[in-house]
Each structure stands twice: as structure tokens, then as C-alpha cells.
Amino acid sequence: MLTIDINCDMGESTALWDYRIEKDIALLRYLSSVNLACGFHAGDAHTMHTLVEAALTAGLAIGAHPGFADRENFGRSNIVLPPEKIYDIIIYQLGALDAFLKIHGARLRHVKPHGALYNMAAKDRVMADAICRAVKDYDDRLLLVGLSGSKLISAAQAIELQSRSEVFADRSYAPDGSLTPRSSPGALIASEEASLQQVLQMIQQGTVTATNGQQVPIIAETVCLHGDGEHALPFAQRIYNTLKQQGIETRPD
């Protein structure tokens, strides 16, 4: 039987839009894991605590979603930091979220960098190494979630840190396997049908169709939906129900 993890970036409370935690909570029944913002690019203590409790009640795996300290641009600005500072911001954010799991006798399962930090480290081995070292030093049982085929995944493998190769349900792909920049037309997939077909292709065929029509090989171990996306809830419902109908089980491992 095919299995797949469906993850979602959430807890991203910010003044940049009308965030509603109820939307995040409604998504939980269609997921197997969540990535919670840790207060740097978005999120706050109360949001973290509320969603930790909700995700634990729903039986989901919980991961940290650390980003740059860039609330003004939702962590999407490319910021150049030396490796030791990247290391420190990862450790700091893992500790912040992990505190709320500890009081419930639970633990973090994984770490997935956010936004510019994720995309820069996908191509920059020095950044990737700093992130992976921080994750392993914090807790060597953690999984590192990174873009399929990226330097984040190879950096994790190099230090024997467990990893999961991630693909996206609501983003289009460039021919080199990277995500289409958000500033480019068609970067965000707005069609429910297109999103579903991309997910099925990635899981069942191990490929994704790039913006130029090229078939790009990928490894799909976990599929991401963005909780802040306009169509997040209907996408999640459709994907979850279709996978179930096709006998594909959704679970974190």
C-alpha cells in the first residue's frame, strides 16, 4: 500500500493578513503532520500553545517551522547571515515551540525551515549545513524536512540526520526542480483540480510537470499544503478524500 505524509505550515499569525486560528484547526482532520511557526517570521506564544494542544488531540505529528526574524515580509526576504547565527536562530526557535510540547509530555518530530530560509538553504550548502547541525545538536531523533533534491536533504544525509523529501501541492515547479518564485506568474496553484493532479503524479509517478512542460523527477515523502493559502481547506479536503479513495494512506511515517 502506498503511504504519504500530508503536512501543513500553520500557526502563522501576523498583521499582514486576517489570520484566523479556526481555519488552521479545521485543516487538522485532513493532515498527518503540522509545521508550526515559532515566533520569528510569524506566530506567537498563544498560537503555538493552542495549536500544539489541537494537533496532539488530533493525533498529528508536530514539527517546528523556523524562519528569519522578518515579520514585516513574512520571512520571505533573503537575509544573509553567517552560519553561526543561522545555527542560533534555529536552536532558539526549536526551544520556543518544544516548551509547549514538553508540558504535555510530547516531543517534536521534525523541523522544516520556512520561506527564504528554506529556499536559500535548498541551494546553499553552507546554510544547509548550519541548519542541519542545529537540528541534530538539539535532538538527533528529529527529522529534517527539505525540498526534494535540495542541498538541505544532502546536508542532512551527510551527518546521518534523518530527512524527508518534500513536494508541494499548491506551488508550481521550475525545470531544475526548484519552486517557481512567488513573484512569477503561475507560482501559486489556484485550481483544485490542478493541485490534485500534481499531488497524484508526484506520489504515484515520482515526477512533477515543470512550468515548461518538462517532467522532472522528484522524491515525494511528504506533501505540503500552505495553511495561509486562499484555497487551503478545500484543497486539503479534496486531496485527503481522493487519496483515501485510491487506497493511499496518509500518515507521518
Task: Estimate the strand proportion.
Answer: 15-25%
- Main sheet summary: 7 strands, parallel, barrel
- Mean of residue pLDDT? 95
Oligomeric state of the chains? single chain
As a whole number of angstroms, the C-alpha radius of gyration is 17 Å
Helix content: 25-40%
* Overall 3D shape: globular
Can you list the strand order of the major beta sheet?
1-2-3-4-5-6-9
Number of domains: 1
Q: What would the CATH topology be? A: TIM Barrel
The CATH superfamily is known as Glycoside hydrolase/deacetylase
Q: Which architecture does the CATH hierarchy give at level 2? A: Alpha-Beta Barrel
What descriptors fit this protein?
alpha/beta; two-stranded antiparallel ribbon; 253 residues; TIM Barrel
What does this structure look like?
The longest helix has 20 residues, at 83-102. This protein is an alpha/beta fold. It has helices at 21-27, 45-57, 83-102, 115-123, 125-138, 151-158, 192-205, 232-245, and strands at 3-10, 33-37, 61-65, 110-111, 143-147, 163-168, 207-209, 215-217, 222-226, 249-250. The strands form two sheets. Strands 1-2-3-4-5-6-9 form a seven-stranded parallel β-barrel, surrounded by six helices. The chain starts with a strand and ends with a strand. Helix 2 (45-57) packs across helix 3, helix 3 runs parallel beside helix 5 and helix 7 crosses helix 8 (232-245). The chain is globular, with a radius of gyration of 17 Å.
Protein topology:
Elements: E1 3-10, H1 21-27, E2 33-37, H2 45-57, E3 61-65, H3 83-102, E4 110-111, H4 115-123, H5 125-138, E5 143-147, H6 151-158, E6 163-168, H7 192-205, E7 207-209, E8 215-217, E9 222-226, H8 232-245, E10 249-250
Parallel strand pairs: 1-2, 1-9, 1-10, 2-3, 3-4, 4-5, 5-6, 6-9
Antiparallel strand pairs: 7-8
Helix pairs in contact: 2-3, 3-5, 4-5, 5-6, 7-8
